[in-house]
Structures are given as structure tokens and as C-alpha cells.
Design brief:
With 486 residues, the protein is mainly alpha-helical. The chain has 21 helices and five strands. 46% of the residues lie in helices and 5% in strands. The chain is globular, with a radius of gyration of 24 Å.
Length: 486
């Protein structure tokens, strides 16, 4: 090999619409795909358990795709700067390409690697392969980063639609570097899968990680979920959400692909979705963009309140209540269904995420970071931007925060968005025989109804751990005291 090109895969585990891969192929030199599991560099946040499970299968899928084109994927573990320095010495590449990351510690790693490579005379270039709009391109009229979603999204989309996605390459120039010669590992050696115990059965049944699984998920959504999406996405008992978030998290499909495929489906009549359905779906992609905008422009949004007046707030520390919330044993069926869906499948419906988040922060007064940490470990779509940005929105501590006085009533939310109790019955089976009238507040049911449903409160299903009205009053009075704080 005269001057191979290294393509450094990260959160972009796909072949289609992959700018770094396109650039490498354009050099017409052998292409060496590389993945580095780096949980050791300064500031890098270790992956949660559910994400590690997904990553194993997504890497396996990518490796198989590349192998089919005669280009083995080389897998490594360790500080990325050290690994890349070793590869530069062993493989003597002419260029290294990657798609950008947007959190400050990752940017620092990438910048240092770029400097190292260029000092050795190796070309190094990064590309936009994750987002629709680069964070630094969207600014207020004053030229500052945006802090509110609606003006951000309006400014981001004002210049027109994002660039169309590129197809997957038909062929990739092969290389003859063996994993052994490069010091690479097998994917199994990364030890990403749970073993003792193996708790991933529900996720295996629910998901198909990888680019093919992502494309299938998008196709299913466009044919059956996009029509009525604007309203239907609020009902957890219906198949009305895209469930593309974990595929986007790992870059198995790009935001550009989702944006344009939805538009084509509506324009060509492949979907009966209305223009408002399409607009709402695209605005959800926009929320992901906004989260990355915050991630790029602010400091550690997973740890630091965006609203600084919350820095002095005294959150409750109650390990017993936190554990009951995590286990789905709060006594509020819609909350418990959401937490159990999360544990079983690695995912939770978007409406229910807001309900369970509000319950933790507003009803229990527990720090939003406890919830963010739990989601980071249990969500297959745990994203370094969207996860903390959404938690801060729910908590009222974020840049585009929900008002502190918005306290979701879990009973009313259940009655409105799960009126027949289908969602609750699926994930809280001990309430499966409760009539819809009482399924979201079983403690209000007459003794005869409970007996007929086979429910003994406090035994089969817990009493509510807090009274909603009392908890709401406490939250309002506590948060009210922050209004004047700086």
C-alpha cells in the first residue's frame, strides 16, 4: 500500500451518506476502516449498559457490511490519541478522515489527533456527518448561540433544506492489513455485552441494530407511522413514533436520510401523512439539532444547570424513593409502565419520558441528574446531547426550559394519552384486569372492583408513594423561591 486512507468510525456506523468514507474513497487509495472504543481519554463519559449492548451489535453489522465489500473493520480499545499514533506508525496512512463530534472533551481529543497527524505529514480532515446543521452556523441576530428552540429551528431552516444524503458506495478500495498485524481486537474482546446476568432479552426481541435495521425501521415508520404522527405520537399505546432514536444515536442512519425520506414519502404519496405531520416529524429532528447546539456551545450539560439559579437548589436525597422510581414501583401506573418499558426494552415512549421525568423532579424533588444518569445507563438511545438537554427541559433548569410550574399530573396524563389503559396493561400486568375508569388511579377504585380485578393494593401493586396535590404544592412553593435568584 502506498498511501492508505484511514476512516475513523465513531457514532456513524453506516456506509450510506458518510462524508468521511466518501472522502477516503475519492483518494483512490486503499481504505482502512477503524473503530476505537475510547473510555479513557480525559472527560470522556463511559458508555451505559444498554448503549454498550447496542454498540456490540451495531459494530458487528458494520463489520459484516465492510467485509462483504472486502474491507475488514479494525477494532481497538484505549485512548484514541495513543491508538491513532500507533496506527500512523504501523500503517503509514496518507490521510485520516472522520465525521465530527460536538462535546468539548471529544473535540479536544479530535483536535489533538489532527495536530499529531499533520505534524507527521499526514492529512487529517473532519466532516459533517451527524447533524443537519453545524452548531456554529446557527446564531441569533446578535451573532450569539441560540438559547430557545423555536427561534433556533426557524433560523436553522431559513436558508433552505439540508443537503440531500449520498448513497452508499458501490465499492471500497480494499486493504490487506490483518487485524493481528495492526494489533486490532475482535468485537467480542471489547466486552460490551452483559453476561452475568444477561439482562438484554427484551432488547433483543425489540431491536435490530445496524444500518439495515435502521433502514427497515424508517421504511415501516414512513408507511404506517408518519400519517397522523403529529397527534398520534402522544399516545404510548399506539405504534405512532418512529423509534429511530437509537439508530440516529449510533449514526446507522443519518438525520439527512430521515429528513429527505419523509419528505419524498409525502410528496410521492407513499405516505398519507399531512404536511403538518411531516413538519412535526422534522421538528423532532430539529430538537435533536438544538440539543447538539447546546452541547457544543455550553459546558457540561449533563452535570451543570443551564439555569444557574438552580445551582443553590437543595434537591432531596432519598435513595428509597429513587429506587422505587427506577423499578417502576411508584404507585402511579403511567409512571411505572414507562420505567418498566425502559428496563425491559431499553427505550421509553417520548410522552412518557416527560411524565416520568416530571415525577422524579417535581413530585419527589430528586435531582434531575439522577434521572439523567439512570437513562444514560438504561436507554439504547442514550445520547450525549439529547438525554441531558431533555432532562433539563423537564426539570426547568435548561436553556429552553419548561416553566418551573409545569407539573405533569400522572393520572390525568394517563387518562388522556392512554385512555383504554393498553400501555399500562402491557407493562404493568398486575393491573391488566382493572377497568379503564380506574386503571390510572387504582387507589380510587371501590373494594369490589379491586377484588374482581385481583388487585390488592400494597401487595400486588403499591399505594401511591406521594399524593399528587401535596407534591405539586410543595414543588410550586419550592421552585417559586428561585424566581428571584440569579
Amino acid at each position: 500500500m502506498s498511501s492508505p486512507s484511514i476512516v475513523w468510525f465513531r457514532d456513524d456506523l453506516r456506509l450510506a451518506d458518510h462524508p468521511a468514507l466518501i472522502a477516503a474513497i475519492a483518494r483512490k487509495e486503499p481504505v482502512i476502516p477503524v473503530f476505537i472504543l475510547d473510555e479513557e481519554s480525559d472527560g470522556i463519559r463511559p458508555l451505559g449498559g444498554a448503549v454498550r449492548w447496542w454498540l456490540h451489535h451495531s459494530l458487528t453489522s458494520l463489520s459484516e457490511q465492510l467485509a462483504a465489500k472486502g474491507v475488514p473493520l479494525l477494532v481497538f480499545r484505549g485512548p484514541a490519541r495513543d491508538v491513532m499514533a500507533s496506527l500512523a506508525k504501523k500503517l503509514k496512512p496518507g490521510a485520516v478522515f472522520w465525521n465530527r463530534r460536538y462535546r468539548k472533551p471529544e473535540i479536544a481529543v479530535d483536535s489533538a489527533i489532527k495536530d499529531d497527524l499533520k505534524a507527521k505529514g499526514i492529512a487529517a480532515e473532519s466532516f459533517s456527518g451527524t447533524l443537519l446543521f453545524e452548531p456554529w452556523t446557527v446564531k441569533s441576530q446578535a451573532g450569539t448561540p441560540m438559547r430557545v428552540f423555536t427561534p433556533f429551528y426557524r433560523a436553522a431552516t431559513a436558508p433552505g433544506e439540508p443537503a440531500p444524503p449520498a448513497p452508499a458506495p458501490r465499492s471500497i478500495p480494499g486493504h490487506d492489513v490483518t487485524p493481528k498485524a495492526a494489533g486490532a481486537l475482535s468485537i467480542d474482546k471489547l466486552a460490551l455485552l452483559p453476561t452475568k446476568p444477561d439482562w438484554s432479552g427484551g432488547m433483543r426481541a425489540e431491536w435490530t441494530p445496524g444500518e439495515k435495521g435502521a433502514r427497515k425501521r424508517l421504511d415501516v415508520f414512513l408507511k404506517g407511522g408518519l400519517a397522523g404522527y403529529k397527534e398520534g405520537r402522544n399516545f404510548p399505546g399506539r405504534p405512532s413514533t418512529s423509534k429511530l432514536s437509537p439508530h440516529l444515536r449510533f449514526g446507522e442512519i443519518s438525520a439527512r436520510q430521515c429528513w429527505h425520506a419523509a419528505g419524498i414519502a409525502v410528496e410521492t404519496g407513499q405516505s398519507d401523512a399531512s404536511d403538518s405531520d411531516l413538519a412535526h416529524f422534522r421538528s423532532e429532528l430539529g430538537w435533536r439539532e438544538f440539543s447538539y447546539h447546546l452541547l457544543f456551545n455550553l459546558d457540561d450539560i449533563a452535570r451543570e444547570n443551564m439555569q444557574k439559579r438552580f445551582d443553590a437548589f437543595q434537591w432531596a436525597k432519598n435513595a428509597q424513593q429513587l429506587r422505587a422510581w427506577q423499578r417502576g414501583q411508584t404507585g402511579y401506573p403511567i409512571v411505572d409502565a414507562g420505567m418498566r418499558e425502559l428496563w425491559q426494552t431499553g427505550w421509553m415512549h417520548n410522552r412518557v419520558r416527560m411524565i416520568v421525568g416530571s415525577f422524579l423532579v417535581k413530585h419527589l424533588m430528586i435531582d434531575w441528574r439522577e434521572g439523567e444518569d439512570w437513562f444514560w445507563d438504561t436507554l439504547v438511545d442514550a445520547d450525549m446531547a439529547s438525554n441531558p438537554a431533555s432532562w433539563q427541559w423537564v426539570a426547568g433548569t435548561g436553556a429552553d426550559a419548561a416553566p418551573y410550574f409545569r407539573v405533569f399530573n400522572p393520572v390525568l396524563q394517563g387518562e388522556k394519552f392512554d385512555p383504554d389503559g393498553a400501555y399500562v396493561k402491557r407493562f404493568v400486568p398486575e393491573l391488566a384486569s382493572m377497568p379503564p375508569k380506574y386503571i390510572h388511579s387504582p387507589w380510587t377504585a371501590p373494594a369490589s372492583v379491586l377484588k374482581e380485578a385481583g388487585v390488592s393494593l400494597g401487595f400486588d401493586y403499591p399505594h401511591p408513594m406521594v399524593d399528587h396535590q401535596a407534591a405539586r404544592d410543595r414543588a410550586l412553593s419550592t421552585f417559586e423561591a428561585l424566581k428571584g435568584a440569579v
